[in-house]
Amino acid sequence: MGSHVGVDWASGSWVVVEATTETTNVSTEPSLLNVWHEYRERANEILVDIPVHLESEGDRECDQEAKDFLGSRGSTVFWTPNSDAVTAGDYDMAVAKNTRGLGSHSWGLIPRIQEVNTLLNEFDTAHKTLYESHPEVCFKAYHGDNLPSKKSDAGFEVRKKCLIKNGGESFQPVIELADERQANSQWHHRIQSGRVDDVLDAAIIALTARESAGSYSTLPKDANPACDPSIVYPGN
User: Is the pLDDT assigned to residue 205 strictly greater than 60?
Assistant: First the structure.
């Protein structure tokens, strides 16, 4: 049986959580191409917290549905730039070509989205393995409402408990690393203490991949994550 991988951008590198039925491992990679080469032979699925498929114009339906699903925490879902903005040569051109302008966070996502596009263009098999997910959607699907901000102490504790409750002791290595990083500000495992929440984010989408075993729920419903703009989350 293969492993299941969750990947989240952590301001300088990709945090990767690989989950098996027995344990989890946390590592970092400088690019999604590195992630692909490292895990493609043994991973059943690789879920990434980055937009995978784009619209040529207008907003992606999956972004709107994710905002609706999260309710008061809908602001944690950012509007995805359209394909023309992603391929624009500079910021002013990207703003002009995007449907709703371009906020700083969305502009910052563009190099990461370009990584995904390059990977999918180069490796056809990636379409069957690499899907888009969203940690906050997954945490809510497992935990329910009243999920505190991940930047708060309460949110940090709730997310750790959610991982253990739904993933079992195999996720204990993730919890131990997160606690170590939070208590020690020294740079270690290529993960800054301020990015520990990204470890938990990568872990929840790795858990989603492992527990769903390919039978995901999708936003929008009945979308094909191999080719449609869509977000996968824990299956019903």
Answer: yes
